[in-house]
Design brief:
CATH architecture of the largest domain: 3-Layer(aba) Sandwich
Region (Disordered): 1-35
Structural class: alpha/beta
Helix content: 25-40%
CATH class of the largest domain: Alpha Beta
Number of domains: 2
Shape: globular
Binding site for S-adenosyl-L-methionine: 121, 141
Largest sheet: 7 strands, mixed
EC number: 2.1.1.-
Strand content: 5-15%
Order of helices and strands: HHHHHEEEEHEHHEE
CATH superfamily of the largest domain: Vaccinia Virus protein VP39
Number of strands: 7
Strand order of the largest sheet: 3-2-1-4-5-7-6
CATH topology of the largest domain: Rossmann fold
Subcellular location: Nucleus, Nucleolus
Family: Belongs to the BMT2 family.
């Protein structure tokens, strides 16, 4: 049965609202140190830009845009991210996801059934999740780098009106930390619920609990004044998620959150949880209107 289209009177602010012009990267020969510095610089400038935009300081926004362009823009950031996921610099994060759900995927091997995966912030059509026959991958990114990646803002993607347009898995690998605004991060996590389904095709060999795969720099939860692992657990639990798997390296934290429903909606404001002069200000704000 075809899906009916419904209009929405309200829409969370899109990521592209704060999008900056992009320039071609000048060189692919970036060292590990240069890659890290470029990523950190881009995040810092994007945060400053969001603050200037929210305060209505267009002159400062223009100045920051100029700095971002001088650094190579979003495309240079994407290049650095791709290099960071290369095998000699930490590898493809989707390998962790495939490892965690491998037993389930194995049951689909000799069937025509597939799990639908939405990869937000996709950089490649050749990563680990793209090579699994049991996955039907939809890839989106603010600035598509390949033909198999739709140029789309997740916050502007239409809310599905039928189960066939929803997903069994959503990947947010190093995506939430790119969002420059704490409230927009909360909106992104909240919005994921509308895109998840546990409905499988009749030929599916097993049941499956829908999941969100979340990857963040470890500093976002280990070295923030406003976010801890415990607070992240509270936020996700309030949205109806349970932590299925977790892994931490010296650079990244990987988490697989199963969606079980039964949310207990509550607001989460930006509040000091772990004071310290050397800590960062990464936060997630969840509003309940």
């Amino acid at each position: 049965m075809p899906c009916s289209k419904k209009s929405r009177s309200r829409r969370p602010k899109s990521l592209s609202h704060s999008r900056i012009p992009t320039l071609k990267a000048k060189s692919t020969g970036l060292s590990s140190k240069a890659t890290r510095n470029l990523i950190r610089s881009h995040h810092r400038l994007m945060k400053q830009r969001a603050q200037a935009l929210n305060s209505g300081n267009q002159s400062l926004v223009n100045d920051i845009d100029k700095q971002i362009q001088e650094n190579g823009g979003l495309e240079s950031y994407q290049l650095a991210s791709k290099l960071g996921q290369s095998s000699d610099r930490g590898g493809d994060s989707s390998k962790v996801l495939i490892d965690w759900i491998g037993a389930t995927l194995g049951q689909f091997k000799n069937t025509s059934a597939k799990l639908r995966l939405l990869e937000v912030g996709a950089l490649s059509t050749r990563n680990a999740c793209s090579l699994v026959q049991s996955l039907d991958v939809t890839r989106i990114d603010l600035n598509s780098q390949e033909a198999g990646i739709q140029q789309q803002d997740f916050m502007e993607r239409p809310i599905p009106q039928c189960e066939s347009d929803r997903f069994h898995l959503i990947s947010l690998s190093l995506v939430l930390n790119y969002v420059p605004d704490a409230t927009a991060r909360g909106n992104m996590l909240t919005r994921c619920v509308s895109f998840l389904t546990n409905v499988l095709p009749p030929q599916a060999p097993t049941a499956f609990t829908p999941c969100v795969f979340l990857v963040l720099p470890v500093a976002c939860v280990d070295n923030s004044r406003y976010l801890t692992e415990a607070r992240l657990q509270e936020i996700m639990s309030s949205l109806g998620f349970l932590l299925k798997n977790s892994k931490k390296t010296n650079k990244l934290v990987y988490q697989l959150w199963e969606y079980h429903g039964n949310p207990s909606p509550k607001p989460f404001k930006k509040e000091l949880l772990s004071p310290g002069g050397s800590k960062n200000n990464f936060a997630i704000i969840v509003r309940r209107d």
